[in-house]
Design a protein that fits this description.
The protein is α/β, with parallel strands linked by helices. It has two domains: about 300 residues, Alpha/Beta hydrolase fold, catalytic domain (Rossmann fold), CATH 3.40.50.1820; about 80 residues, no CATH class. It contains 14 helices and twelve strands. A ten-stranded mixed beta sheet has the order 3-4-6-5-7-8-9-12-11-10, with helices on both faces. A two-stranded antiparallel sheet has the order 1-2.
């Protein structure tokens, strides 16, 4: 959750010195500002993000204007004589082959899926064949990974980054949609998670969309435009790229992890599995069409999304959704220092405790609708309303309790297996809490990093921001772990 000040179309590592303590409200918590006040940084970031989205939309319009001429040129080529080495003829042959593969997959995939899935916990992911998307039957240029691509959601222009492995060869590839944290934006998040570079090596497509609002964030409530964005994004990607629709996944950090939790409910028929980092969330009225496997990562010393439940005191110092103040000022919760000084961070008085946002109850005094303590109220439809709900966290379930609720929804055996998988750099435990024997093999895994902060395990960039997000371990790498989990959990029906 950090605001970005980068407008360049070139993606480059960003020095830590350009970040201010904006962090992340339910997401990361990075604030990219080039020497200026937090208000200036927030306004500058919003303007730059908007400029990139507008630029992507403008490129889309230019592309559309040139479609007629391009179409005429292609028609002329199609009617001309060609020889065996004609690249157009080769492309047509490849397209026909991909289309035939798609037809075969469409006709046989249900039988193959049934054969690959026996009882819970007894499935073979390698037996699930690729299911080519419509884009496999077309030939499209590879998008520039450093340039935002346009996306229309209703009447709103949105945008995203996409990285396609250099050796794609029009094969159906897995897809991971990677959602940034509160206020960070897509460009900074590509540096934070490093999933795009990892995917280029491992052979999956990575997409990093841009959030909404002057402070980039995700409204994960029912009926929100951001939830609609996910459907529109999947439609566009599957039409324009060669995607294996049996292997579409989502990952998110903090506020992006909340959205990931929501789309596991909303798009369970299109997402095979998901991963949440520092932000698993209980979604009100979640009724997925099928159980969705999840692997989660959370630090016990997270002061933004508290491991003990609700939100930590650091959230109060984040920019409000409209960028005009802080969340603490908007909701009446006060700043982090004010909350700490008044002792309202819980019985211990420590930042990030389970009672860290008690003072936020003043925000809802006189309100017509009070947000439920365990989820976001479905009546919240604007970013301004969302910023108030985000600090309403009294009696919220802990992260392990949220994982247990997810496991219950997935029909897992209620017995959790706890295993220490490693020790951190400070010799603290990293434990895996695992629920298995689930319906449709939809396992639930939670990596608990003792002493870990609001961070992305394995990220060098996250580790460099220890003063903002807390400790980041490199003993485990979230990218490696989630990718192995995803490979073991393709769409199983």
């Amino acid at each position: 959750m950090h605001a970005i000040t980068v407008v360049s179309t070139r993606l480059r590592p960003l020095p830590v010195s350009v970040f201010r303590a904006l962090p992340l409200v339910v997401a990361l918590v990075l604030a990219l500002a080039a020497c200026g006040s937090s208000d200036t940084a927030s306004n500058s970031t919003g303007a730059q993000d908007s400029a990139e989205v507008e630029s992507a939309a403008s490129q889309d319009e230019d592309s559309t204007e040139g479609e007629d001429d391009s179409t005429n040129d292609r028609e002329a080529e199609d009617t001309s004589d060609s020889n065996d080495n004609d690249p157009d003829e080769s492309t047509d042959d490849s397209a026909e082959g991909a289309a035939a593969a798609g037809d075969t997959a469409d006709g046989d995939s249900a039988d193959d899926d049934d054969a690959a899935t026996d009882t819970a916990g007894e499935s073979d992911p390698d037996a699930i064949p690729p299911l080519p998307s419509a884009g496999c039957s077309t030939s499209s240029p590879t998008p520039n990974p450093e340039q935002m691509q346009p996306l229309q959601v209703g009447d709103t222009a949105r945008a995203y980054f996409v990285t396609v492995p250099p050796t794609a060869d029009n094969r159906p590839l897995p897809l991971i949609i990677d959602f940034h944290g509160y206020s960070s934006g897509a460009r900074v998040h590509t540096v934070m998670s490093e999933l795009s570079g990892f995917g280029a090596t491992e052979g999956f497509v990575t997409v990093t969309p841009q959030g909404s609002g002057p402070v980039p964030l995700w409204n994960f409530t029912k009926g929100s435009e951001d939830l609609a964005l996910v459907g529109a994004l999947l439609d566009q990607l599957e039409e324009s790229s060669c995607i294996d629709t049996n292997r579409v996944f989502a990952a998110g950090l903090s506020n992006g992890a909340f959205l990931t939790s929501a789309i596991a409910c909303e798009y369970s028929d299109r997402l095979a599995a998901v991963a949440t980092v520092a932000g698993m969330f209980a979604i009100d009225g979640c009724e997925p069409d099928r159980p969705v496997p999840v692997v989660a990562f959370h630090g016990t010393a997270d002061t933004f999304v508290s491991f003990e439940g609700g939100f930590g005191a650091s959230v109060a110092d984040l920019p409000s959704a409209d960028g005009t103040s802080t969340i603490g000022e908007t909701t009446g919760a006060g700043t982090q220092s004010e909350i700490t000084e008044t002792g309202d961070t819980g019985e211990t008085g420590e930042t990030g405790g389970s009672e860290a946002t008690d003072t936020s109850t003043t925000a809802d005094e006189g309100a017509e609708v009070e947000a439920p303590p365990t989820s976001v109220d479905s009546t919240v439809t604007t970013n301004a309303e969302l910023s108030e709900v985000l600090v309403e966290s009294d009696n919220a379930p802990s992260i392990p309790e949220l994982a247990e609720l997810w496991a219950e929804r997935n029909g897992c055996d209620p017995t959790v297996a706890t295993t220490e998988v490693a020790r951190t750099e400070s010799d603290e435990s990293i434990e895996l809490l695992a629920w298995d024997e689930c319906d449709n093999d939809a396992e639930v895994q939670l990596y608990v990093i003792e002493g870990g902060g609001h961070s992305w395990p394995g990220s060098e960039f996250s580790a460099s921001l220890v003063d903002l997000v807390g400790p980041t371990t490199s003993v485990i790498d979230a990218n490696v772990v989630m990718w192995e989990f995803f490979q073991n959990h393709p769409m199983m029906g």
